[in-house]
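Sequence and structure are no longer studied apart. As an example, we show below a sequence and the tokens encoding its fold:
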Amino acid sequence: MAQKISSYKELHVYQNAMQAAMEIFELTKRFPREEKYSLVDQIRRSSRSVCANIAEAWRKRRYKAAFISKLSDSETGACETQVWIEIARRCGYLDVMVEEKLDGEYNQIIGQLVRMIEEPEKWLIKPKK
């Protein structure tokens, strides 16, 4: 029998997204000062939104459409983060190996989110009879 998950913090996708967001936080500390209010702000915001939208989706499990919508927002944030990672590498702030590692982590997160979106019934709160 599968383990019952009682909090979004127990979801592997949330744990992976939080870990990636924290990696980005640490890496962006080394970006140039002139990027503080542009690239640093954008990449941190999008990576954090992945986590926040997973948490919001968890609280909306009573409503299939709302649950899927928040997971979709999380997926969008993950893809946006991949774009900022690529831009950071092209600007010379990240090396290719770091870009590939982070891109792979976000591909895994996106895959996990897509699986949840494709099978929402596994996660929804069933009304009591």
About this structure: The mean pLDDT is 95. The helical segments are 12-28, 39-59, 64-90, 96-118. The radius of gyration is 16 Å. Residues 21 and 111 are 17 Å apart (CA to CA).
